[in-house]
Design goal:
Strand order of the largest sheet: 3-2-5
Structural class: alpha+beta
Radius of gyration: 48 Å
Number of strands: 8
CATH class of one domain: Alpha Beta
Oligomer: single chain
CATH architecture of one domain: 2-Layer Sandwich
CATH topology of one domain: Tetrahydropterin Synthase, Chain A
């Protein structure tokens, strides 16, 4: 009976394990295998159990799940020459494993670098006020540009979120002063509009009271009633000029009329004799 040495058996088992490992591959549900045969692309396999030809075929695993990459803080100069620091987050996933492996050397750092460049380019075209008030719109613009450029790589950029916009202390103080001035301006405008509406209402009320003379007297009586209810010791009540105007006219007429019995004054004129 022929017996193999133990070392040979161990070597055979070791080689068999390597062959089995190189031949049988198991892919998860979210993974795909880009298979190359002698260096040429064959097809995309998976998920589940796939068989490979050892030393002839090789595969590259591709994760199809959505990935999140953080864009490092970027120094951005806005359209109105304001320096700031901006960072963002990019959400993307591979939709075409073949192009993601063949078209670009390493799609993850390539997408990260492209996102940094696009973020600086897009934000540099807008002013500071737009960055602070329209952050969602700017994120959508960056996402659409990134998605269009990475489409040839088989990558889908689903979302971009601009997280923080950091300003210098001088710029923060300037923005605070601007906001304070804006609030003062709005307060003055609201006060002026209130004065205009009040004056317009008073004009309308005066027109209504002037059309009916008795209404003015009733209004005076109502005012006296309101003042009397407060139990004040001193009452200051304005009297309209229209009431005392007839008395003033009568006084002026009596002053202008001559008093009976008065002798009109005579002016004496001295005439110089004319020379002969």
């Amino acid at each position: 009976m022929f017996f193999f040495p133990l070392s040979i058996i161990v070597i055979i088992l070791f080689v068999a394990g390597i062959l089995v490992t190189a031949t049988v591959k198991i892919l998860r549900e979210y993974e795909r295998a880009v298979v190359f045969t002698l260096g040429r692309f064959e097809k995309v396999k998976g998920p589940g159990l796939i068989l490979m030809i050892p030393f002839v075929q090789e595969m590259v695993r591709v994760d199809l799940r959505i990935r999140v990459i953080e864009i490092p803080t970027q120094d951005v100069i806005s359209h109105d020459n304001v320096s700031m620091k901006v960072d963002a987050v990019v959400y993307f996933n591979v939709v075409d494993p073949e192009r993601a492996i063949i078209r670009v050397q390493s799609y993850l750092p390539a997408t990260n670098m492209l996102a940094q460049t696009t973020l600086r380019a897009v934000l540099g075209q807008h002013e500071l006020d737009e960055m602070l008030s329209e952050r969602k719109k700017l994120s959508t613009d960056v996402q659409s540009i990134l998605d269009a450029q990475t489409e040839t790589w088989g990558i889908k950029v689903s979302n971009v979120e601009i997280r923080t916009v950091e300003l210098t202390e001088n710029m923060v103080r300037a923005i605070a002063k601007q906001a304070e001035a804006e609030r003062d301006r709005r307060a003055k405008i609201i006060h002026a509009e209130a004065e205009f509406q009040a004056s317009q209402t008073l004009v309308n009320a005066a027109q209504i009271l002037a059309s009916v003379p008795a209404a003015m007297q009733l209004r005076y009586l109502q005012t006296l009633t309101e003042i009397g209810a407060e139990q004040n010791s001193t009452i200051i009540f304005p009297m309209p000029i229209d009431i005392i105007k007839p008395f003033l006219d009568l006084i002026e007429t009596s002053r202008a009329a001559p008093v009976p019995g008065d002798i009109p004054s005579l002016s004496l004129v001295r005439e110089e004799p004319s020379g002969t």
